[in-house]
Batch of 2 targets.
Target 1
Amino acid sequence: MDYFMQMKIQQACQQLDFTDKSIKEIALTLGFDDPYYFSKRFKQVTGMPPVKYRSVNKD
């Protein structure tokens, strides 16, 4: 996996954990024009989609 992609996903995890930004906002912040592509890449790296990641870590 590309190092820069891993870093972007790590930043996304932090934003999902500590902010209430939408998935679309986080994707745009990290340079993804397409939130669906962002979700796909996020799932490849973490093993779960961003929505599930947020719900699991909020509990």
Target 2
Amino acid sequence: MREVSVVYPDGMMGMVKPHVLQGLIERDGIVKFQRSDGWVYLDIDPVRSLDRSSSYHGTERRLN
């Protein structure tokens, strides 16, 4: 599994496994991370939430 480049609040760079990335985002543990199309700044760019308690109450088609 490929690791993701991240920048921590103290400016240090690191590499994390994708499953660790969500936790860092939720805890404000990183400032930005790198996608294939460039850097994602958490205070600027939209980031998809993995919160399953969202306001959408329709049929979950992605699981089918």
